[in-house]
Amino acid sequence: MYRINPHYAKLTGSYLFSTVAQKQHAFQDAHPEVEVIRLSIGDVTQPLAPAVIAALHEGVDEMSRAETFKGYAPDLGYAFLRETIVEHDYKARGCHVEADEVFVSDGAKCDCGNIQELFVPESRIAVCDPVYPVYVDSNVMAGRTGVCDPKTGRYEGVIYMPCTRENGFKPEFPKETPDLIYLCFPNNPIGGVLTKEELQGWVDYALRVGAIILYDSAYEAFIGEEGIPHSIYECEGARGCAIEFRSFSKTAGFTGLRLGYTVIPKDLKELHDMWARRHGTKYNGAPYIVQKAGAAVYTPEGQRQIFETIGYYKRNAQVILDGVRAAGYYAVGGTNSPYVWYAVPEGMTSWGYFDYLLEKAGVVCTPGSGFGPSGEGYVRLTAFGDYQKTVEAVERIRRLGA
Ligand SMILES: Cc1ncc(COP(=O)(O)O)c(C=O)c1O
């Protein structure tokens, strides 16, 4: 008789964005005359760079000829892509990462969700609160947590590191010692960053307590300020305690194409070899044409084109940040990040404000409480929309007032 994994039953509600979408559709069905503007899910809207499109076409043509046809990709990904990644994302920033430490995948979500398999079930995880839900939910599914306390919104056994207005929305070293520390900077959902010194502090802490940092830098391309690390390997000692996740989704608009990579330094030899073994056993690689398109991102024209698009989104972020502040809201993020995080009016909950904004302004936001209990009282807006629609949404928010 089969038995199902009981840990799935501990998951609270549906995935945040499914609930947001359900509410949006219910509202749109009831009010077909309203042009709803979605500044909720962090999905890109601008087309792929011409250099990427050209590489995709070329890749398709190669697949049509026996001499250039490609079957299964190498386990870790094509060397041409891994070597390009190392040159541009690491060597150029003075980081020591080697091509056989880069594992190409179909995106950071899968890697962030799957990485916990390498660790014992008793591992204590520490997460920021609020947090990208995948880190917590994947550990819940694996049985690494107890149940979620409906009063606090916290899973038993998880170490939460609140990121609130009082601490500048930055995590502090937890009182209990974790084995695995999930950090994401530039942060989703708050949009904040850590300075090099602050991140070095986390690396030193992890080395001291024997923890591994699982560092998600899916939004590094949005960093505009000096002194903000793009990679954790800019910090001394990180090769001995950190795994890094990267994604082409927000950097180059690959959310529908799917490409990412994970770096595990050989200093963490067991973990490196285990992830290689896992890749070989459970994964058959990102498609050749997508990896070829990924390499095109790093060509001079690819770089120019993707930074033009990132500039477009950063302009949206500035419009949102300035607009919600002008409307009287307390807002952060939006500078080195595509997300703006702002406090809802006194006395309202995140979901209450979500409904209010949808009904009164036809704008869809993401309720902060969906990212963790410390997100209560906030909402997140994304800069990945169309510029004109973003301007219109902000104008509607401004008309509503705080
Ligand atoms: C922090 C963070 N990591 C990872 C991802 C997923 O990236 P990918 O599209 O490469 O799976 C997202 C997507 O929104 C994200 O916000």
In brief:
Helices cover 38% and strands 14% of the residues. With 402 residues, the protein is of the alpha/beta class.
Please tell me about this protein's structure.
- There is one protein chain.
- The protein is of the alpha/beta class and 402 residues long.
- It folds into two domains: 6-47 and 302-400, Alpha-Beta Complex (Aspartate Aminotransferase, domain 1); 52-299, 3-Layer(aba) Sandwich (Aspartate Aminotransferase, domain 2), CATH 3.40.640.10.
- It is built from twelve helices and 15 strands.
- The protein starts with 15 loop residues before the first helix and ends with a helix.
- Pyridoxal-5'-phosphate binds next to helix 4.
- The site of pyridoxal-5'-phosphate (PLP) has 14 residues, from helix 4.
Question: What attributes characterize this protein structure?
Answer:
402 residues; alpha/beta; Aspartate Aminotransferase, domain 1; Aspartate Aminotransferase, domain 2; 2 domains; 7-stranded mixed beta sheet; 4-stranded antiparallel beta sheet; binds pyridoxal-5'-phosphate
